[in-house]
Amino acid sequence: MVILDYGSGNLRSAERAVARAGAETEVTADPHAALEADGLVVPGVGAFSACMSGLLGVHGHRIIGKRLAGGRPVLGICVGMQILFSRGVEHGEETEGTGEWPGTVERLHADVLPHMGWNTVRAPADSQLFAGIDAGERFYFVHSYAARKWELDSGLAGQQPRVTWANHGEDFVAAVENGPLWATQFHPEKSGDAGAQLLRNWLGTL
């Protein structure tokens, strides 16, 4: 299991959480290791543009694309999920994302930002990511930007995408299961027992 090191923070907490969930982990930017690993975790904190700059610097967009082309699992977390969309708009600045999914990451319409703390989510009944997790469980969010719409009808590997939603001022995409590409807007590594179960669910698919 590789945690992709592209200069974004939160690497060690993601590494510890995945290790506690039962996987041997390595934090690296080495392309060969990232391509060959059973699973690749792409964490991210901070600004969309800064994360994309760091990702491009280690050719992470190519690594993600090659893995998905071969059906190899990728898990994006927080801004590591946001950069999977076509573009991000922050403070009037538009930045191109990896384009794995169509859509724009933009500022939430909410009275209080950032959205910081615990919140519930609405997962599809057939979700594998949230299997065994009670509907009322809460997950830990820290963000002001999100994908406010889901624009992809057909998914990777011919599978219909499963989209999980949350609400802070308005609905936004909280998680996605799309063939080998899964992602969460919240931080499973900071979400206690529910987050640990979610990571175990992902590892169980590898």
UniProtKB/TrEMBL annotation:
Residues 2-202 form the Glutamine amidotransferase domain. Its main location: cytoplasm. Its EC number is 4.3.2.10, 3.5.1.2. CDD domains: GATase1_IGP_Synthase. It catalyses: L-glutamine + H2O = L-glutamate + NH4(+); 5-[(5-phospho-1-deoxy-D-ribulos-1-ylimino)methylamino]-1-(5-phospho-beta-D-ribosyl)imidazole-4-carboxamide + L-glutamine = D-erythro-1-(imidazol-4-yl)glycerol 3-phosphate + 5-amino-1-(5-phospho-beta-D-ribosyl)imidazole-4-carboxamide + L-glutamate + H(+). Pfam families: GATase. Pathway: Amino-acid biosynthesis; L-histidine biosynthesis; L-histidine from 5-phospho-alpha-D-ribose 1-diphosphate: step 5/9. Keywords: Amino-acid biosynthesis, Cytoplasm, Glutamine amidotransferase, Histidine biosynthesis, Hydrolase, Lyase. The active site is at 78 (nucleophile), 187, 189. It is found in: Cytoplasm. Gene3D superfamilies: 3.40.50.880. Heterodimer of HisH and HisF. IGPS catalyzes the conversion of PRFAR and glutamine to IGP, AICAR and glutamate. The HisH subunit catalyzes the hydrolysis of glutamine to glutamate and ammonia as part of the synthesis of IGP and AICAR. The resulting ammonia molecule is channeled to the active site of HisF. HAMAP family: HisH (MF_00278). NCBIfam families: IMP_synth_hisH. This is Imidazole glycerol phosphate synthase subunit HisH. The gene is hisH.
